[in-house]
Amino acid sequence: MIELVGVSRLYGDVTALKDVSLKVERGEILTVLGPNGSGKTTLLKVMGALEHPSQGEVYFDGVRVGADNAGEMRRRATMVFQGTVLLRGTVRDNVAYGLRLRGVPEDEVDRRVKEALELVGLEALAGRRARDLSGGEQQRLSLARALILGCELLLLDEPTANLDPESLAIIKDVIRRLKERGTTIVLATHNLEQAEELSERLLLLHRGEIVEAGKPDDLFFDQSSEMARFARSENVFTGEARLVNGVAHVDVGGGLEIKGTFIKEGLVTLRIRPEDIIVSRERMTSSARNNLLGRIVGIEDHDSVVRMKVDVGRVFTVQITRRSLVEMGLNVGQEVYLTFKASSVQLL
Q1: Are residues 7 and 105 both part of a single domain?
Q2: How far apart, in whole angstroms, are the C-alpha atoms of residue 82 and residue 136?
Q3: How far apart are CA 237 and CA 229, in angstroms?
Q4: Is the pLDDT at 280 greater than 80, yes or no?
């Protein structure tokens, strides 16, 4: 259905994609994995003709996509971004907007809006102001706006990030139902469990290059594969490093800067082990150079040990004892501080 041949995408001196070649078959679900800054979102934008490659070619059903037909391609492909941008007005107005722009008769608009809202479980909220919805409901609304256009290729950027359990279950069910309808889906995510659950094929990106691709069972079963190594890694970030008084300051996006003791500038990939991060309700006074304020977005119980997801601009995985969880009274939605030493930041 869609094919990329030798595609590179440059932003000035930064290479977001480098010589990427891949083919996605009609009706396939492909998941793109990789650390922050690996090029996942850029890849989806190029596939959806939202950005043009600096080098290489993109084909849709065998037809080369260029400036002359990019508009047609964008009508056949829809991308749902992680950051939801809502229009003023009701939920119904937001979903109907795209159809009205295309001049679809109002009776058909009403029918298709009703179907789309039922699919994502928002039919009871059709008359509510869109901006009054919860974060999970807003993400479902964004998906409904994309689906109502009847796209052939659906591009999802972190579709399940930071969702409440109800919204997560609904979006996963929608993806499965779209698969049954023959919709081609490419999604980018950090969530390995959901990638394995939903996908027919996985692709691992690192610094804009395809490292590995294949079926989930094959890649995760082979413990020597790059995908298996990535699955065992957490808190992996890519960013631009600069040295300030002998300390590396790495901009990993999301307004987040991480400090490390390594001596290197330019594009770097780094890792912080979950067990090297201290969690506290109040800001700690210590010599540690990294002290980040974030919000708990997930808690996973592993008997005596608890693993938490904390969003500080990027999502960190941290590990604490169950006793510490209880003593601090931690729950999803609460703010906490993450503290770790610059020496604990590993360069990959």
Answers
A1: yes
A2: 11
A3: 15
A4: yes
Interatomic CA distance for residues 169 and 146, integer angstroms: 18
Residue (of 149, 150, 170, 146) closest to 160 by Cα position: 170
Contact predicate 51/39, CB 8 Å: no
Determine the Cα–Cα distance for residues 146 and 74; give it in Å rounded to an integer. 12
72: containing domain: 2-231
Q: What is the count of structural domains for the chain?
A: 2
Structure tokens, 340: 């770790």
Q: What is the pTM of this model?
A: 0.68
Are residue 186 and residue 100 in the same domain, yes or no?
A: yes
The residues, any chain, with a CB within 8 Å of residue 187's CB and separated by 6 or more, are 29, 30, 31, 32, 155, 156, 157, 159, 175, 198, 199
Q: How does DSSP classify residue 175? A: H
321 Cβ partners below 8 Å, 6+ apart?
A: 304, 305, 306
Average pLDDT value for residue range 144-151: 89
Buried-state track 2-14, b at ≥16 Cβ within 10 A, e below 16: bbbeebbbeeeee
Mean pLDDT, residues 275-280: 92
SS3 assignment for 60-111:
ECCEECCCCCHHHHHHHEEEECCCCCCCCCEHHHHHHHHHHHCCCCHHHHHH
CA atoms within 13 A on the CB side of 150: 7
pLDDT in tens, 60-76: 999 999 989 988 888 88
C-alpha to C-alpha distances, 251 to 170, 242, 243, 269, 276, nearest whole angstrom? 34, 9, 12, 11, 20
Cα(233)–Cα(107) distance, rounded to whole angstroms?
51
Q: What is the CATH number of the domain that holds 255?
A: 2.40.50.100
**313 DSSP assignment:** S
